[in-house]
């Protein structure tokens, strides 16, 4: 019956002609990643960091430098720890009914230790990899920022770097310029410590498997303070964005290139809105047993007005989070490329009763179809999926695309891989995935 339902769905949506092709088997067990959201984010970030480190070592080897064998052994050890963490079990059998039991505590401590060991060792490895590669970087009379591209195609993007105040004094004007072309690299402050500041520097056209050098030039003129402003409307060459501070959601995201408003106003939850889910009766996954509520008590805070991005910042309250600084979002509209980012911060309290947290992204384009990156390729939910595999939730590697007649929207999350498509689907247990609308719900965490 499942196979018949699948074939009927394919015929309805895509016609009778169906070529033989590979199909994905999305795993039901991946919901466990939501029960360890912090560690899962650390694992994903460390996987990427390790690829960068291996790229640095490969670039040094291509230039004739031998890579010490102990470094290669340590790379293998980090991979092994990440694999032990990524295995799908997330706790002892009694972790739900007795979370404070000795076995619950010890098993989770053992499991999480794999990822934190990998995080620590991967950071130390990055230092060693730069030590191997640094002999190929030219020296200069002024401070130099070297931005390395370990991928095999040229790219532009954001480099985040900590710069000591002895190099860039906090009260003096400065410029970061391409040492070869003299082009200015826009820079925007992220945060400050006593000894230095974290900067976001937009760098352009870094060559494949290569690098660019940027000179840091300072002057004796006083530096103007970075401006911040309270705003609920943002606009640049790419987008016009409006935020409703009452809902804590975006009500308009106009794509100036296509003329489309990307926000579906008919959706039950707002675009970029934070919400919490609870169960009324233990852990009985029946749709009517779930209760959901959005964050509240929202205030608009000063947002950035910098050369890389300008932003709207909102802060509010979400049940299950700390009373002070419990929930906050910065919505960044980039000046340097067609890009919008939602930076969510929540201070989650340990809650033993059943709960979950989402951020909603109901996209509007008529006829929009979803495809996402899984292990080994792209998946169109339902069509490229074995019937009976995970349908209520999906797990992406790096990105999801909403493809529509005017183009496509590319959406991704560095830290949170779980998502529900079309709506919030828990309790449906669909034999065949059906996505009626291009609505994406980032399933940030759960303790189910």
Note the topology:
Elements (H helix, E strand, L loop, with lengths): L1 H13 L22 H26 L6 H18 L15 H32 L10 E6 L5 E10 L7 E7 L8 E6 L3 E11 L3 E13 L5 E2 L3 E3 L3 E6 L4 E7 L18 E6 L10 E5 L1 E6 L1 E2 L4 E9 L9 E8 L5 E7 L8 E8 L6 E6 L2 E3 L14 E2 L4 E5 L2 E5 L6 E4 L17 E8 L2
Antiparallel strand pairs: 1-6, 2-5, 3-6, 4-5, 7-14, 8-9, 9-10, 11-12, 11-18, 13-15, 15-16, 16-17, 18-25, 19-20, 19-22, 21-24, 22-23, 24-25
| Beta content | 25-35%
The dominant shape is globular
Average the pLDDT over all residues and give the rounded result.
92
The count of DSSP E runs of length 2 or more, i.e. the number of strands, is 25
- Which structural class fits the helix and strand makeup? alpha+beta
The major β-sheet equals:
6 strands, antiparallel
**Which residues sit in consecutive blocks of at least 5 with pLDDT less than 50?**
none
Roughly how many Å apart are the termini? 29 Å
Strand order of the largest sheet: 12-11-18-25-24-21
Specify the number of helices: 4
Give the H and E element order.
HHHHEEEEEEEEEEEEEEEEEEEEEEEEE
Cα radius of gyration in angstroms: 24 Å
Please give the share of residues in helix.
Answer: 10-25%
